[in-house]
Design brief:
Keywords: Carbohydrate metabolism, Cellulose degradation, Copper, Disulfide bond, Hydrolase, Metal-binding, Monooxygenase, Oxidoreductase, Polysaccharide degradation, Secreted, Signal. The N and C termini lie far apart (61 Å). The longest helix has 17 residues, at 2-18. The protein is globular. It has helices at residues 2-18, 53-56, and strands at 21-25, 69-72, 76-82, 91-97, 115-119, 137-141, 149-159, 170-181. Strands 2-8-7-4-5 form a 5-stranded mixed beta sheet. It has 228 residues and is mostly beta strands.
Length: 228
Amino acid sequence: KMKLSAAIAVFAAAAAEAHYTFPSIANTPDWQYVRQTANFQSNGPVTSVNSPDIRCYQRNPGSGAPGTYTVAAGSTLAYNAKASISHPGPMAVYIAKVPAGQTAATWDGSGRVWSKIYQDRPTLGGSMTWPSNGARSINVQIPRCLQNGDYLLRAEHIALHSAGSAGGAQFYISCAQITVTGGSGTYSPRNQVSFPGAYTATDPGIMINIYYPVPTSYTPPGPAVETC
């Protein structure tokens, strides 16, 4: 029993090490501008697309991060992973404008307000090769056409290594608080979604066996990437 318990403990530790968080943007301290997530210690994923955690995975809903980071529209911002993105799957980034009368630190991100500004796709062939696999940060261009003001920036990586059945996909998520300056103000997203609400557990980009037979195509879940 002791050997079995020790083996289970080692396996659990290894599994936790394979998981990750997204705790920072640019060259800033962890959780300074990103809302601390419920998995800040465990590194565990969200597995239900219908859970409120699918939005920002906040440890303390209703409380924001200590700071809000100022970024110029049109510039590139790094969204950083703790450890590295060690599972196969797609990376996406969404953005939502904070309503008048609220701030990036106080707004909960509810409603059909999120638009996608970044999405990667796999290289297909003998296997699926993912651009984000092993990455420690993702570089995201902040649209030059945004209106100035406060936003929430939502990073999402979907791990698909166990996604052959509904509920098997693992979502690694966090939300950063940013203030955008120098934007042209013409941003007019065609497809906005809510979290939860954007996905179903059986979306073809979420419930998928990526190993056998190797897929010949892949459609990421959610809306298309918005452009200026």
